[in-house]
Design brief:
The structure is a single chain. The chain has 168 residues and is of the alpha/beta class. The chain has a single domain, classed as Rossmann fold. The chain has 6 helices and 5 strands. It has a 5-stranded parallel β-sheet with strand order 3-2-1-4-5. α3 links the parallel β1 and β2. The two termini are 32 Å apart. It binds S-adenosylmethionine (SAM). S-adenosylmethionine binds next to α2 and α3.
């Protein structure tokens, strides 16, 4: 799986909304008619920006929330997409259209799952992506003792919060 994000891109874009960054990273790399899976599609904000760049890709969006899927349906009404209501904690029972996936997107979603379930999602993605497929993953990651980007000030903040018993 090629990596499509770099530290430099992240630095340049970290203040930009995620719904802009993802299409920027993915858009031009997608083939016409490519199949794209979004695990935790939410209200479809990423696809709202991605589909104008690649109008003929086929998106399968998965989310556990009927309310979010309903918002996605309204937002993406002109686009070619299929929405599936499914709990990612049970990823193995997710049944997908048979076309090979050129890309899988998971944005700000995986942190909702416990770590063993996250690992199952990674395995699922690895199994279903076509060879050389694209995996776009963006999320908050908690690394309590590790230095972070920049001057490390957020790492110091984390340590202080942990000492104070705030693990959120
Ligand atoms: C912060 S939103 C991100 C939505 C979208 N990816 C975006 O960037 O705009 C997180 C989404 O994950 C979904 N979600 C949370 N836990 C889930 C689970 N166990 N299975 C499926 N979807 C889940 C929520 O319903 C929500 O739509």
């Amino acid at each position: 799986m090629p990596s499509i994000g770099t530290g430099r891109i992240w630095k340049a874009t970290r203040s930009a909304p995620v719904s802009w960054i993802c299409p920027f990273l993915l858009g031009r790399r997608l083939r016409p008619h490519a199949a794209v899976l979004d695990l935790g599609i939410g209200s479809g904000k990423v696809e709202e920006r991605l589909l104008p760049l690649r109008p003929n890709v086929r998106v399968v969006g998965v989310d556990a929330s009927a309310a979010m899927l309903s918002l996605a349906k309204q937002r993406l009404k002109e686009a070619q997409f299929r929405l599936i209501r499914h709990d990612l904690n049970d990823i193995e029972s997710l049944s997908l259209p048979s076309a090979p996936l050129q890309a899988v997107i998971i944005v700000q979603t995986l942190h909702h799952l416990p770590h063993p379930k996250q690992r199952e999602v990674y395995r699922f993605v690895h199994r279903h992506l076509e060879p050389g497929g694209l995996f776009l993953f963006m999320d908050r990651v908690r690394l309590p003792a590790a230095p972070t980007c920049g001057n490390g000030s957020s790492s110091k903040r984390n340590t202080r919060a942990e000492k104070a018993g705030n693990n959120s």
